[in-house]
Structures are given as structure tokens and as C-alpha cells.
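Quick one: structure for this chain?
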Amino acid sequence: MPSVLGADRAYRALLIAPGVYAPQDDTFLLADALDREPRLQPGTEVLDVGTGTGALALAAARRGADVTAIDRSWRAVVATRINATLSRRRVRVLHGDLLGPAAGRRFDLIVCNPPYVPAPQLRPPRRGAAVAWDAGHDGRAVLDRICDGVGELLRPEGVLLLVQSALSGVTPTLQRLERAGLDAAVEQRQYVPFGPVLRSRADWLERRGLIAPGEEKEELVIIRAERT
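Got it. Here's what it folds into:
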């Protein structure tokens, strides 16, 4: 597991507000990809979609990027603003649903850690902590919206870095991004132990054929897509 966040005192000091998604394996993996991304330079215009505590937004800001962060949760917006202030970094934090608050703007780099966990409920929740991870029966309720709309927010040669679970389908993500005019590919894969949510629904996932009997690890995937 990449140690980009775990080894950094600045990340460990983040304010974690109740009900706001705390940095964990998928955040760490995406932060590692962001750290390696050549498009991230001083002055790069970055959009962090679903910022949560602001961990990724602050990672970009520390590299000198001009960062805008979005979250639908007011608690996350406040937490990110506080964390930016405590870190002495400038991050523009907007409240709203997914890409909507950034409509009409263009960015050099977009990072996104969306809800992607398949859930027994057909529709994603509208409130509560599960909003940050549950994404409908196939886990794609938010992923598809991101894939379909992100191309309009990227400048030519702009890059999307997206993390998701293989349980929600990697091929559909690549195909939708390509239909949106992006050249997309898997950049990194990492197996991590099931957390409490996946452990609690392992039987359901097994019945759906999404995991093998007794499987206890989830494959996380970083997808990099560039607007051609």
C-alpha cells in the first residue's frame, strides 16, 4: 500500500468531521498517482470532485496548483475549508453535486474518488455516511455521470485521475470515457483487504457473482484519462 498519506504528518493532522469520508486505501492510492502525475505543476488548475476532508485537494495545493474542490456535503465543505486554513493552503471549496458547480470552467487536471461500492439497494442513499461509498446495485450510479460529463471540464491534453473498485466494472468506465473523447487506460491496480462495508455484504456480492466464495480482498484501480 502506498504510504503517501500515512507517512505525511500533514495528512495525519487533517480534521475528520463526523459523517465525512476519512482518507483510506482508495485515497492513498489516488494520492500516490497524483504525486506521480506529470500534468501536476505549479499553476496547474486542478479540480477535486468529492473532496471529503480535502486530502487530495491539499496534496495538489502543496505542489503549487490552483485548486478547486467540490462536495455535496456541507460538512465536507466546512472540513476542507478548515483543513486548508490549518495547512495554510489556498483551496476554493464549492458546495454542490458532482461536476455541477464547475460547469463552464476548464481544468488541466481532475481527481475523483467517487462512491463506487455495489449495494443491495437499487438507488444510492441521499443522506448519511453511506452517501460517500454506496452507488446503487452495480456501483455505477456516480461513475457513469462522472465519465459522461468530465470531458467538458478538461482542457485539451487535460487529465482525469479516477479511483474505483473492480467490483463496479473497469471496462464500462474505460468505454464511457473513450466515448466522451478521452484516451483512457488503467494506470495502477492494488488489492486491499475488505473493509467493514464489503465484509458485511460479502454474501450478497458472492450471490451476484462479483466475488468468489471466501474472497476477502478488493481490487482498487486507478484510471488515467487524457482529453485528446
